[in-house]
Amino acid sequence: MPSLVMPTPKWSGGPQPPAAVSAVGLRKSYGDKLVLDGIDLRIPAGSVFALLGPNGAGKTTAVKILSTLIAADDGQAEVAGHDIDTSPQAVRAVIGVTGQFSAVDGLITGEENMLLMADLHHLPRGEGRRAAAGLLERFDLTGAAKKPASTYSGGMKRRLDLAMTLVGNPRIIFLDEPTTGLDPRSRHNMWNIIRELVADGVTVFLTTQHLDEADELADRIAVLNNGRIAAEGSADELKRLIPGGHVRLRFSDPAAYRSAAVALGEGTRDDETLSLRIPSDGSQRELRSLLDWLDSTGIEADELTVHTPDLDDVFFALTSSSQPEETAR
Ligand SMILES: Nc1ncnc2c1ncn2[C@@H]1O[C@H](COP(=O)(O)OP(=O)(O)OP(=O)(O)O)[C@@H](O)[C@H]1O
Questions:
Q1: Which of 137, 238, 254, 282 shows a CA-CA span of 20 to 30 A to 1?
Q2: From which residue to which does any coiled coil extend (predicted)?
Q3: On the CB side of 158, how many CA atoms lie within 13 Å of its CA?
């Protein structure tokens, strides 16, 4: 669906913020199955980027490449200014990765897991203990610190996993489906934790199948489909890409409602609620012309609301043509 691809907007406020992650033409196949077919990314430092895609779209593959766990077949990428091919160690030193390949060892306690991470980062013993205690406290795990991690709930394990990642004080964090399988309360806890990280200046690269999650957290969202980025933009920009948006005018005076309905011609009437639904992309230009028209005809609505399609609509519109699990190329 090439017509739906949105160019990344030009930065007009002086020098561009530095990119935490940038990639050009990333490609990856497994055997004859093409998983990533030329991915370009630019994620400004300090922002949250969400990579959305259906099952098997290649989200985890992208994270693995950018975090240097596997190599791309083609293309280039830099993370915090370090080339992933030529300086993988420098990349690993500045990133944290959590998600489907969790580092939590269930046989040892939460605290022991944390201390192990501190050792891996060569923190002196005292400093390691302090960092571990601080992070366990911050992630509400102090009470469970002496229990084996295998006894933790899904939400606690995710929090421990993220706490372990933070021992190294990474400036860029890859979160691969951070809330999959969590109950609503744990999801909201995780969202708050992610927001706190961003407030501290951390860049977050998130993969998710939850559209509300991308909507809540991400500054920019890219939809991955058939190995390519089908669309990229803020949640609002993406919602404007597909039809379904409308403006609703509600009246309390039946006479005003009727004359508006007649004058307007197009649109859907709801005689019960005295409201008119007018197709619109919700853009400033369309709203202005609607308001100008209302003014010129002397019609006064009691309420005007703009409805944009939600991310679900966008996601299904962009990915409905694909069956990535079955598509072998
Ligand atoms: N090591 C591998 N060998 C062969 N095929 C693989 C390998 N890893 C992943 N794949 C295939 O590549 C495709 C993309 O997988 P990937 O895990 O990146 O998708 P995803 O978007 O993260 O999906 P999910 O949301 O289900 O985790 C899938 O079809 C998967 O089966």
A1: 282
A2: none
A3: 22
| H or E element at residue 51 | strand 48-52
Please give the structure tokens belonging to residue 248. 């609703």
Check: CB of residue 222 under 8 Å from CB of residue 41: yes
- Token pair belonging to 108: 């040892």
Q: Are 245 and 281 in contact (CB under 8 A)?
A: yes
Ligand 1 atom nearest the C-alpha of 70 is: 1
* Residue appearing with tokens 């609607």: 290
The predicted structure's pLDDT at residue 3: 37
Tell me the per-residue pLDDT of 14-57, one tens digit each, with 9 for 90 and over: 667 689 999 999 999 999 999 999 999 999 999 999 999 888 88
pLDDT digits (tens, 9 = 90+) for 121-154: 889 999 999 999 999 998 889 999 999 999 998 8
Ligand 1 centre from 325 Cα, in Å?
Answer: 9
Is 35 near ligand 1, meaning CB less than 6 Å away?
Answer: yes
| pTM confidence score | 0.77
d(CA 323, CA 206): 22
What percentage of the chain has pLDDT greater than the value 90? 53
- Give, rounded to a whole angstrom, the gap between the first and last alpha carbons of the chain: 18
